Protein 1
Amino acid sequence: MYELTVYHFMPDKLNLYSDIGNIMALKFRAKQRNIKLNVVDINETENIDLSKADIFFIGGGSDREQALATQALLKIKKQLKDAIEDGLPGLTVCGGYQFLGEKYITPDGQELEGLHILDFYTESKEDRLTGDIVIESEKFGTIVGFENHGGRTYHHYDTLGNVKYGYGNNDTEQKEGIHYKNLLGTYLHGPVLPKNHELTDYLLEAAAKRKGIPFEPQKLDNTVEEAAKQVLVNRALNQKA
Ligand code: GLN
């Protein structure tokens, strides 16, 4: 059996709104293709060897937990940046997405240093951007999820797509997330991967390709997943009407 390894960063601090479900979705869809997914929890960053990771995942957290996680991840920021530049597939959600940038400004104006892996920043406000979200993505089709963040993120990179309902990166641009090399950053909790098999398969396929493992993108029957997604799309768009 083929194997892939996921490094799950800071699961003890960053697991808002069941972000752990993303790991379950990766495991499930890998198994359907006879790939065993090994999950390594990284709560301490000392002496880690990122070359052993085929995918990485960072979930979301409150501002406090986010600041603690950033301190730990600052120790490996060069390794992480090099790995991302080299095409390591990764998913980062909300707080985990925000701290890849230059800085995170809290609602009371405090500046928390980011990892400086990508050139963007996030400014948080007291009023939160919360609720269901629907995105149309050229690459992934319709993406659905749930968002709850004070942070407004501004960047010039590719995004996951255009927001049809909800907020996404901020309350002005109608764009959601980031897509840089094989890195996906998103505000979508819920968790995002079980609701969007296209994103799950994108990460698995990128990891498999990088490792030279065969991967059949079309292999699985997604009828149930598509029907569930349609319910969420209808619910969001009816809320709008
Ligand atoms: N602290 C961040 C914000 O509110 C992240 C929250 C989250 O991960 N859901 O913007």
Protein 2
Amino acid sequence: MAEEIRHPFLHGLSKHRGAPPTVVVIFGASGDLTARKLIPAIYNLAHDGLLPADFHLIGFGRKAIPDAEFQKIAAEAIKEFSRREPSPEVWARLAARTLYVSGGYDEKPAYDRLGARITGLEKETGQQLQALFYVSTPPTVFAPIIQNLGASGLAARYLRQARQSKVIIEKPFGRDLASAQALNRELTTVFAEEQVFRIDHYLGKETVQDLLVQRFGNAIFEPVWNRNFIDHVQITVAEQVGVEARAGYYEQSGCLRDMIQNHTMQLLALTAMEPPVSMDAESVRDEKVKVLKAIHPLRLNADARPRDYARAQYTAGVIGGRPVKGYLEEQDVSPASATETFAALRLSINNWRWQGVPFYLRSGKHLARRVSEIAIRFKRAPGSLFADTDRSILAANTLAFQIQPDEGLSLVLNAKIPGLETRTQPVKMNFKYATTFGSNTPEAYERLVLDAMIGDGTLFIRGDETERSWQLCSPVLAHWAEQGRKGLDTYASGSWGPKSAEELLAANGHSWREP
Ligand code: BG6
């Protein structure tokens, strides 16, 4: 019981993964992400006993509301979006440590008030608190927030000590190379790189972390993980939803910025990187940067092939039996919009491991199903001992990491059909997370908020990493902006994407696998 009082939240985590006493400050406290993801994530960390004994949450926003009102908003968010039923006891403990500070993001005195509130908490509890600033606002106010965290001295609290301040920056991290570089400069004038946690929530997904365990924890994969055995790689991040209520944002973004530059490129980096010397943040990120650096610039030829991309917009169609509108008919979308809702890239990696192995990436909204997967297509078995005929089918072996939903791993092999002659058929070996481990796995944001509190940047993006990814995507975006609607393909909602994406693979004798 005494242990319970000293550590009201801390149980069930290995000792070295404990965070010091912390105050998390969320900028953009009334935003959608805060309600849907951040507050439920913090609640579930509390529920699982993973928060430090002295944990406090401060919402910061423009609206002036009392603490009690923010606690009510937080409680409602948990009720609506938490992955598990809220427990009144856990919430009561957290609610008592949930506060609110109001002020303009560019208003220095507001940051002084925030600082005073944090020091007040330190006095009350007799503890030095690490401050973790979570910037979850529209990107237009990233710069004033960072500058004011610097000017108010909040960024430099306990600098170079374990409890030094940390900052999490939500996406979008820039909209092209120049703006990402500018944001990195802004950040590094105020913070040291090890204080900065650039988030990509895909890295917090269990299955994405499992990719590293599968690749480097099993001796059977590494010997075949190269150009001698692998024919090509397909990475799909497909969504069934359209732009919904986010057209205002999406019109300025598009699929390449929204999904490919960050999430899909991260999946590629983890699939293609060399084994790191250890799992610490720098070793892992060094390898990711190295592989991103080895990717050839894309061929952009406007009128002639080869070109390394496809881009398209969804038109009206049917999803889940219901008719849906085309992108141009969506609310807040310009009828002349050239924003792509689907993008596919063909990337070549210029190194010893991957030379000659195409990596195909695709992502889109209003596709047939919500599914993210990484499919490794191996070369076909040589010779013709078991000929591929109309009675015998020999498939290329495919190892597929099912990122979501239906998380797992599958391997396509060829087997003999039982019978008195030798006929073959592809069969599938399946590992399902839910069957082995149960289905109530933590949300990505739980892991990421906890890691940032601990100061572990392994699952966050380093400054040079995001810039390298933009270096590849920026010329494509500039080219598309110049082309406007010229060459913009379409696809019916509910399909697997445009014809041009099929052609991108067909040019190399490949085709997309249906996930
Ligand atoms: C976000 C994008 O980063 O990721 C959204 O802005 C997208 O457009 C979302 O819907 C997809 O995330 P998840 O975790 O649902 O695959």
